[in-house]
Specification:
Layout: H1 13-70, H2 73-90, H3 100-122, E1 125-127, E2 140-147, E3 156-161, E4 164-166, E5 169-172, E6 174-180
Parallel strand pairs: 2-6
Antiparallel strand pairs: 1-4, 3-6, 4-5
Length: 183
């Protein structure tokens, strides 16, 4: 018979120590797993917050660019009537036998109109393409239809008032006549 190392049936201190270590390791493993899960949650929150901040920064930049581009919209819209009146004056060119003062006045109006259009161009304000272009209800306002064979139906054939756009937005639609098929 093999000699029993623990004849008194007292708990073996080595086994008890081993069981205590296993139990402590299990608790540590559980704590490590819990801490890893918590760290993963914090990392996820950090990444989401960083993405939200990046999106917020991009949106702010986009809104700032739009605000800069469209800041002068109301002012530009008010200046369109000035441009129209200058064009009306230019449409009535003085006769060759007009006085030098009248010719000088007309030259001054031409120069002022040119400068106004240069300022419009600097601020991304442009005239809307009209005669010969396909009718676009976003930038054209049809005043009448004209039967014609010269242009295909739906094409702008006459401009009554210029239209203007700033960036992609229409400041004022062009008032136009549109071609329709002859009967």
């Amino acid at each position: 018979m093999a000699e029993d190392k623990n004849p008194t049936n007292e708990p073996n201190p080595d086994i008890a120590l081993e069981e205590a270590l296993v139990e402590e390791l299990d608790e540590r493993d559980i704590e490590i797993a819990r801490l890893r899960e918590e760290a993963a949650q914090y990392k996820d929150r950090l990444l989401r917050t960083a993405a939200d901040m990046d999106n917020l920064r991009k949106r702010g930049e986009r809104e700032k660019a739009e605000a800069t581009l469209y800041a002068a919209t109301n002012f530009a819209r008010d200046l369109l009537s000035v441009s129209d009146n200058m064009q009306r004056a230019l449409d009535h060119k003085p006769a060759e036998d007009a006085s030098q003062e009248t010719k000088n006045l007309f030259t001054g109006i031409e120069m002022t109109q040119r400068e106004l259009l240069n300022v419009f161009q600097r601020y991304n304000i442009r005239k809307v393409q009209t005669v010969g272009a396909k009718f676009d209800p976003n930038v054209h306002q049809a005043l009448f239809e004209m039967p014609t064979k010269e242009y295909p139906p739906g094409t702008v054939v006459q401009e009554m008032q210029s239209g203007f756009a700033i960036g992609d937005r229409c400041l004022r639609p062009a008032m136009v006549g549109v071609a329709k098929a002859e009967d």
